[in-house]
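hey all, quick one before standup. I had two proteins in the batch that finished overnight and I want to keep them in one place so we stop losing track of which output belongs to which input. First protein below, input sequence then structure tokens straight from the run.
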Amino acid sequence: MSFKVSWKLHAVCFIIAFLFCLIEQENIYNLFANMLFHNNMMSITGTEFIKLNISIVLIFSIVACIHELIHGFVYRIFGGKVRYGFKVLYAYVQEVSGNPLHRTKFLLVLLAPVTIISVASIFISGNIGTIIFILNFLGSMGDLLMAFYLCKTSENSYIIDKEYGFDVVEKIGNSYK
């Protein structure tokens, strides 16, 4: 069984993120308005709108890099070899040894960044911590959907990370099928 990262997955992630933002639009608006008008630390330009956009892109870029580094770190803890890369609008990490990883360990790889960054954002004061939390949560939609998909597979499944997504295999003797 294979799980492919496709335009459909990206569309579903976008729809879920959009619905979250729609439901929380007043809180998100207030958060960004507070950051825009009450944050002297981010005074890069004289134009408030440009300042806000530069700040968000900068924060999101840093959070995305840290997010992928956490994926890679957890892969390495489980003995994997990783490669980092970029595809159009997003960064990714891929385990390249081809060694199967137990489903539970792969779930930890998928969920570690959203968990670690969410907990860490609690300790960052003010609006910045909340923005980091929201941007990481929205950027983790694909990981959360893949984890949900994996929870439907057998507890004895193994995962082989592929360029297109991942394959779910079963261990039979010393081989995987």
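OK second protein, same deal, sequence then tokens:
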Amino acid sequence: MNRLQVLRQRLAEHPVICAVRTSEDLRCAQQLEGPRCVFLLGTTLREVPQSVSSLSAKGHSVFVHVDLVEGLKPDAAGLSFLAEHAKPTGVISTHRSVVEQAREQGLLTILRVFLLDSEALRKGRQLVSHLRPDLLELLPGVALVGLGESRLREFGAGLIAGGLVEDKSQVGAILKRGVLGVSTSTRSLW
């Protein structure tokens, strides 16, 4: 089974993705049973290798949002450093060049697209069509409940929803839209 298949299996078993922003979030994610998907959303270059290592040791698939790592320039050299020294499962970014360069480093890729309006939706579909990221995270996640299923299928990628998800009813409603997972920093949902 390849890494993307393993990730999809983990999301099928635990569709709520731990969005780690603080050291307390990290401690909570490290204590969760069963392999999960974890997004590191707020960290520093100095902390990334240890954070990824401790989460990976628990069997978690760890994705680093490289746009939010303090001290890391998300260019070819920065992504090479990340791949070699931190060894995450993959990266998250809103930038085309990061997704392309991360793939060259052998990392799985998650492209983040913000659903601001119809034009953002159209541009997001074009970007996904060109880049072919492993997964697509749509934000805010609660907006997916109002989108037609045909519009979601147009992306042609495995979908994750994130942002403004605060309770179980929202998670349930979003998952019914056919997404693979819902990322949230609300620890009570993990």
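Flagging for whoever picks this up: The longest strand covers residues 108-114. Residues 69 and 94 are 13 Å apart (CA to CA).
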